[in-house]
Design a protein that fits this description.
This protein is of the alpha/beta class. The protein has one domain: 3-Layer(aba) Sandwich (Rossmann fold), CATH 3.40.50.300. The strands form three sheets. It has a five-stranded parallel beta sheet with strand order 3-8-2-9-10, sandwiched between helices. A four-stranded mixed beta sheet has the order 5-4-7-6. Helix 1 crosses helix 7. It starts with a strand and ends in a 9-residue tail after the last strand.
């Protein structure tokens, strides 16, 4: 006897202040689970070293981004750290229709906006163990100018206030442990009865009385 289950698609949002580790957790989750999908965000910021257009982000000009806004192509978009970021609507609709798990690596504005449009989305907030550790990680990255660093640090304090709006909080003290916690959340949410669209349980055929 076999059991067949069809589930609704699952939208999983990972957010954190800059330096919180959401991107590192996201990459480890996707690497270990190739069947999961990644929502590639659109942004107007310039690509960093080793970032690939269409894989890490869709890099667009401000004018191109505004054209997509006018076409209602985004499920959510926001102005973050001096640049535009947005999540395309088409991959979301595809994942929901296919019963797939779609992972988002987006900021708190995007996460809370997405939740308003898709109540079934699961929001996970990732935090380093302390403010001092957040500052250390931001400095260690070395990808921004002094002015950009100060802006990200200022925004981090504001982003921190959003954690009560999320469904789960994961402290990223150890990357592997944090990744395991996020994975456990995803699997638990996938098993919710409310996400099961169809259950086929092949019972033995009932024998007729002679």
């Amino acid at each position: 006897m076999t059991t067949g289950i069809k589930r609704s698609g699952l939208l999983v949002v990972l957010s954190s202040p800059s330096g919180g580790g959401k991107t590192s957790v996201c990459k480890k989750i996707l690497s270990a689970n190739p069947e999961f999908r990644y929502s590639v965000s659109v942004t107007t910021r310039p690509p960093r070293e080793n970032e690939i257009d269409g894989k890490d982000y869709y890099f667009k000009t401000k004018e191109e981004f505004e054209e997509l806004v006018a076409k209602d192509a985004f499920a959510e978009w926001a102005f973050v750290h001096g640049y535009y970021y947005g999540s395309l609507r088409a991959p979301i609709l595809s994942a929901l229709a296919d019963g797939a798990i779609l992972i988002f690596d987006i900021d708190v504005q995007g996460g809370t906006k997405l939740k308003k449009s898709y109540e079934e989305a699961v929001l996970i907030f990732i935090l380093p163990p302390s403010y001092d550790e957040l500052v250390r990680r931001l400095k260690q990255r070395g990808t921004e100018s002094k002015e950009q660093f100060e802006l990200r640090l200022k925004n981090a304090l504001w982003e921190y206030t959003f954690w009560p709006k999320y469904d789960y909080l994961v402290i990223n003290d150890d990357l592997d442990e944090a990744t395991d916690r996020v994975y456990s959340i995803i699997k638990a949410e996938q098993s919710r009865v409310s996400r099961i669209r169809e259950l086929k349980w092949n019972l033995p055929e009932k024998k007729e009385d002679k």
